[in-house]
Amino acid sequence: MDDLSFNATLAWRRDISASIEGYSKGYMEFIAKALTERRTVRSALRLLKDAGFKPIEEYEKNGERIKPGDSVYSVKAGKALLAFRIIDSLDKGFNMVAAHIDSPRLDLKPRPLKEKAGLALLKTHYYGGIKKYQWLNIPLALVGTVVLENGDKIDINIGTEPGDPVFVISDLLPHLDNRKGDFREVFKGKDLNALAASIPLGSGDKENSIKLAFLKSLNEKYGLKEEDLFSADLQFVPAIQPREIGIDRSMIGAYGQDDRICAYTAITALINANKLSRSAGVLLLDKEEIGSDGNTGAKSYFWMNALMRIARLMDMNDPWENVLLAMEKSSMLSGDVAAAINPMFEDAHDPENAPRLGHGIVLIKYTGRGGKGGTSEASAEFVARVRRVLNSGDIVWQTGTLGEVDRGGGGTVAKFFAEKGMDVIDAGPPLLGMHSPFEIASKADLYETYRAYKAFLEMPNEAL
Questions:
Q1: The CATH number of the domain where 322 resides is what?
Q2: In this predicted model, what pLDDT tens digit does every residue of 72-127 receive, in sequence order?
Q3: Which residues form a coiled coil (predicted)?
Q4: 250 in the Ramachandran plot: left (φ > 0), alpha (ψ -120 to 50) or beta?
Q5: Whole-model pTM?
Q6: Dihedral angle at the C-alpha atoms of 286, 292, 295, 300, nearest 10 degrees?
Q7: 403 and 376, same structural domain?
Q8: What residues make up the domain containing 450?
């Protein structure tokens, strides 16, 4: 009678510890460098190019046709990426994994620099859902790209290398802190200003001499002036290296695992998938944490345009119509992380429906808030197909929801693809401390997610 009950399996009970450790090592190297969307795309491109993927633009420039067996990619604004392996005509449909590569952080304001109380400060605007107090009194790195008026791009990286200085947002000492109330009200976004310098320029007699000293250092190191900061994507991210957690080294702590853990597992799954029966792709998206807007988010047409360019280069008639019709025959895993049950805060979860660390990839049938608002719920038929693929591949999986009913909720990119007719379900590893500067994942869940994505991309036509 035991086989009548569903119980999530502990992924560590499998005799694949060497495979888990080997895969985790590559991931930790990736997540250490993938601190921004641009850096994540660059790291993904290195993997794709090593595997023989070519840019769509190269085919267009050379007048070449895309044919079965080709592997192609397209990048949008340096912050979003579509990679595809062509097996047959797109009008037969395809399998795809989508993940977002933006993470909660602190963005510099357009005019970030000010001087106050003998200190130079950099003003920020937080990005995505954060607990503001978690960003106080931790080392921060300034990372990003500045685009000069002439179009030249300057990469900024201060705080990630050994010996680098870091930045910090200083909190008030407990002796003087009499603030009371909800932490969301006590900690204000306008107060998230990072210490940047304290030595004045020259004698210090001039107004804003410390601010000027900061600008002088920035100019000497990068050739920048204050106006250049307006045309920049500059972020404060935690200056904390990924680390193994626990005496058994079974977990990984790192910044940005939501959702770059799904990006890495998806890209490596696409590269290593060796039993594709139809075309398959991976889509890495920006702006998910703030609604998926903009020309690099899931709501934009950049990824559909890329598919139409592929269809055109395959000599398909009416690429627009063919791509739209192909989506009706296509399947997607919306690769996003799940909120693992936290043993210190169990009452925030529904224990029977809360995913657990170390129990494999999490399938989430619906997200949304309250009465399932803002979600696309996967159909029972599609869930059954995904179950069959995972079970036949002996992949450890579990189910999950995002917290107790009426407690909270959230959304993913899934609904934007379901709107276009694709079958889609959310699937990714569980995390502890999601949206914090140091999120925690299980190595076993990381590896099972990779195996699940690979099996899904290889899903045969008869399983659809």
A1: 3.40.630.10
A2: 999 999 999 999 999 998 889 999 999 999 999 999 999 999 999 999 999 999 99
A3: none
A4: alpha
A5: 0.95
A6: 120
A7: yes
A8: 2-103+255-463
